[in-house]
Amino acid sequence: MRNERRLAQRTPRDPVVLGPEFFDRDTVTVARDLLGKILVREIDGTRLLGRLIEVEAYLGPDDLAAHSRGGRRTPRTEVMFGAPGHAYVYFTYGMHWMLNFVTREEGMPQAVLVRALEPGIGVGRCGGPGLVARALSIDRALNGARLQPPDLYVIDDGAPRRRVFVTPRIGVQGTGVWEKRLLRFCVDSPYLSRPIPRALRPTAWRGL
Question: What's the number of domains the chain is made of?
């Protein structure tokens, strides 16, 4: 509640870098609120950015699709158990880096996966988590990095909120009831990793 009040005091048009208090909240709330914000990566004097349009929430020990399921604490997942507002970056399928934002308080291993961006000028395709990392030059070097300038951070530029669609997460087969949990959040965009089925839209839409 303290963090919610602090965020509410900011006017929508004030560009601001999102600090730890933004991420130190309910993970589903953070995931929804990230939509429309701008992810910025600065490297070698170049500023790469894109607008967040698709994310997924991973809810810790009880979530069978989360790396921290069952409270697993390994060298790879250690970042998830740390302070909110840090990057959790891991390698998967032997070829892709994946970017997540750590949420909630220390010891509560939850995170939000970045699945897609609307790319800024000069940024390559970002329609998938692996493509996001490739386009923004994100790799293991950023694992555990605090989300703050100059390396990697998220900006709220006061852009108008858009309709949010809520669907099951992608690629979490074999996780029981968690396979169907509505924990993927996105806005309608040609840059999504997977289009929103037209038949799903009447039931998937959630107004912000």
Answer: 1
